[in-house]
Amino acid sequence: MELFLLSNGKLSGDSQPLGYAHEQIKAMFSARNITSAVLIPYALIRTDWDAKALELEDALGIKVGSIHHAGVPSEAIEQAQCILVSGGNTWMLNQMLHEKGLIVPVQRAVREREVPYIGWSAGCNVATPSIRTTNDMPVRNSVVLPALGLFPVQINPHYIDAHISGHMGETRDERIAEFCAVNPSESVVALREGSMLHVSGNKLSYYSAKGEGFKVFRHGLETQEYQDTRALSGLVPFQCI
Questions:
Q1: Which Gene3D superfamilies match (predicted)?
Q2: Spatial distance between the Cα atoms of 54 and 73, rounded to a whole number of angstroms
Q3: Which residues contact 144 (CB under 8 A, 6 or more apart)?
Q4: Looking at the annotation, which residues are catalytic?
Q5: Global pTM?
Q6: In the chain, what are the domains?
Q7: Residue 234's CB: how many other CB atoms inside 10 A?
């Protein structure tokens, strides 16, 4: 299995999407002879989907086609060399994946045919068991919580532990702690901007463009920051490095 789960699509100052992960992604493309990808852009509500596909095509150096042009979306996944899942609104994205009948086709493509999955922000969220740890608003009345479950632990992308002056609401840490209190058997990996988890085969690694760590939240345990994935041993079925 090949998963790139990125906290965000761009860092401040980046001119290209996924710029901080280009080295790892393009190395994977080269090793697997990947020349094209299917973009799932459903999370993008105020962005032109074709424009996003062209932007990614230019940045990644491969042909990128948006799945909304496919007459039968599941067939586009069955023929895909690589799957790109954009950031945006997680609730919209997950709902559309279910409505378009793409949950099982994506799962089978990634798990059985080892088609690489690259998801950022909302695309990272939906790769986990559910979207209960998204930061987004449920913009539709009809919403679905279960997601793709490609990665077995909940992720909170765009994680920030700064305290904003004048903000009287709960911090991100407090919100994630609430999730763990309600779901004491589950853990949450908090990914800061410019960081990603990478599953390649049976190995799980972590990368941060800023040299920052990730946090792991567990109910009843002290939250700590880590620089490598050995902290996730026992939580995931991968070799953590």
A1: 3.40.50.880
A2: 19
A3: 94, 95, 98
A4: 121, 136, 158
A5: 0.96
A6: 2-153+194-211+235-240 (3.40.50.880)
A7: 9
User: Is 28:34 a contact under the CB 8 Å cutoff?
Assistant: yes
How many residues comprise the chain? 241
Tokens linked to 56: 């990614």
pLDDT at 103: 98
What's residue 169's pLDDT?
A: 64
Whole-number Å distance between alpha carbons of 79 and 57: 18
